[in-house]
Design brief:
- The chain is mainly α.
- The chain has one domain.
- The protein is built from nine helices and no strands.
């Protein structure tokens, strides 16, 4: 295939992956909807299986089927997106994350891969609607800042591009999973406080209890934080020294990377030393994810600075 054909194939693949991921989101929403009135099997729920219920109950079989379809479509979207990201790199003859469009596509690929792995490890398919919905939005919005495949600007010609941005994507995908778990924790914890035992039916009650969700959120953030530390505060400054002749210059993107680091450091420190759990910790985690998103979107589009070429 020629470079032009590779670029065209990449565009079609990424657009197709966006459509498939949107269908996965619809399937996950249907899973929640079909489970209305279904009383979950408490033993299966305690094992972490989303949608766990007696198959004889009306809606339980349809809910389980919709969940399976949602996961299969998510995996298919990841495969198609991988093909799109790979051919984008081949067309540009470099790593495919040199601008905002490419970073968005590659980051969602990493996020979907992380989600699929964690479903197998921790059975976190209950965050599927949030992951697929967020991924669909990011891929759709990334097309609004699309740029043709081409060479990098001189400042990006360094192997630190691979290290710095790849680390940021891995950390960001984990932050996304942690944020999704934090959102569901807040919803589930409130429901546990306000819903009588005899009224606890539906998909919300087929996911793990709030304490288990809170634990998973903490573990994911604890994994992501060292990677973000390396990507933002070690690899980033080294790359800046290579590109601009200084390690740190308080560029807007550098400042917000540091702010994001401080928020997540505060979250983990508070949990480890002050015993923070529950609502307060979940809110701080969501603030941290908001800082991460603003650093990626807001700084690039509205503030610029030395990182303006990332558009």
């Amino acid at each position: 295939m020629t470079v032009a054909q590779l670029a065209q194939f990449s565009n079609y693949a990424i657009a197709s992956a966006t459509g498939v991921l949107a269908l996965a989101f619809v399937a996950y929403v249907a899973q929640w909807s079909f489970a209305r009135g279904v009383v979950p099997d408490r033993e299966l729920v305690s094992a972490g299986s989303a949608g766990a219920a007696d198959a004889d109950q009306p809606g339980a079989e349809r809910s389980s089927m919709a969940g399976g379809i949602g996961f299969s479509l998510t995996a298919l979207a990841a495969v198609i997106l991988f093909a799109g990201v790979l051919t984008r790199g081949l067309a540009a003859e470099r790593v495919p994350w040199g601008n905002m469009y490419e970073f968005g596509c590659a980051a969602i690929l990493v996020a979907l891969t992380s989600y699929i792995v964690l479903v197998r490890v921790w059975s976190i398919d209950w965050v599927g609607p949030i992951i697929t919905g967020f991924g669909t939005v990011v891929l759709g919005l990334s097309m609004l800042v699309y740029v043709p495949a081409g060479p990098l600007v001189p400042a990006l010609h360094s192997y630190w591009l691979v290290i710095h941005v790849l680390g940021a994507m891995i950390a960001g995908s984990s932050f996304l999973v942690g944020a999704a778990a934090s959102v569901l924790y807040l919803i589930k914890a409130r429901a546990e406080r306000n819903t009588p035992e005899d009224e606890r039916s539906g998909f919300l009650w087929s996911i793990p209890d709030s304490a288990r969700i809170d634990q998973i959120a903490y573990r994911v953030h604890a994994f992501a934080f060292p990677i973000w530390t390396f990507a933002a505060l070690i690899a980033g400054p080294i790359w800046a020294q290579y590109s601009w002749g200084r390690y740190w210059g308080w560029d807007p993107k550098e400042v917000w990377a540091f702010i994001t680091w401080v928020v997540y450091a505060g979250y983990l420190h508070a949990r480890a030393t002050a015993g923070w759990k529950g609502k307060s910790a979940a809110i701080v985690a969501l603030i941290g994810f908001g800082c991460f998103i603003f650093n990626f979107v807001g700084i690039n589009l509205f503030v610029a600075g030395l990182h303006s070429y990332a558009k």
